[in-house]
Amino acid sequence: VLAPRPGWFFPGLDQRLSAAPALRSPALPARPYTAAARTAKKGSQRTKKEETKKKQGGRRWPLMSKPVDDVYLTWYYERPSYDVEKAVGMLKKFQELDFTHPKQYVYINVFLDMALQKKKKVDPFASTVLLPHRFTDEMNKVLVFTENEQEAEIARENGAAVVGGVELIKWILEDEIQVDFYVAVPAIMPKLIPLRSKLKRKYPSTKRNSLGHDIPKMLQLYREGLEYTVEDESIIETRIARV
């Protein structure tokens, strides 16, 4: 309702205001904000669904037939797969065409099925495997924990980078000694507990074949072996050869 302010002059306004019926605002709903929020939420959900449908509709599905020419759009056809012998032959052929180094590494991606019956997730882990054919001249540095002089001599003869007992703990904690792997004999394990948090997954363990009495076998595995890691996506990405 318009009411006059001091200093304003409207002829006959007072009579019109007194004669006009009193105006009342209609009753408001109990919770108007809740209803508005629900409407907005429904609208946002519909918008998301429409956007999802648009995205799905624009997806490119590959064709089943093989391409005729050497140049084609890859997303229109299924990705080809080859057996090992043919794939290696193609790598060698491409190496000559691309003028790349003949000793370049060959990598492999392994996708693991980590599903269990109890639906428990398998945590990422690392392991070492000894391949039948070595493809590099590099040797890993391995430290052997033992306090037996005879075992220490065997470790040195088989290529251990560092051999010793509890006197090495201080140097390892201060990062004065850094090697690729650590192996140990069972007799010294109670004295290596201070290194558990430092070495973490490299801490000697029977599960990883880094704890035992066969020092030459452990040294061969960790000096010449290939370490691989299984990440959260259950994928192994590692090099396995040279072209």
From TrEMBL:
It is found in: Mitochondrion. InterPro entries: Ribosomal_uL1-like (IPR023674), Ribosomal_uL1/biogenesis (IPR028364), Ribosomal_uL1_3-a/b-sand (IPR016095). The keyword Mitochondrion applies. Its main location: mitochondrion. Signal peptide: none annotated. Residues 32-60 are annotated as: Disordered. GO terms for cellular component: mitochondrial inner membrane; ribonucleoprotein complex; ribosome. The keyword Heme does not apply. Keywords: Mitochondrion, Ribonucleoprotein, Ribosomal protein, Transit peptide. Coiled coil: none annotated. Belongs to the universal ribosomal protein uL1 family. This is Large ribosomal subunit protein uL1m. It comes from Geococcyx californianus (Greater roadrunner). The lineage of its organism: Eukaryota, Metazoa, Chordata, Craniata, Vertebrata. The gene is Mrpl1.
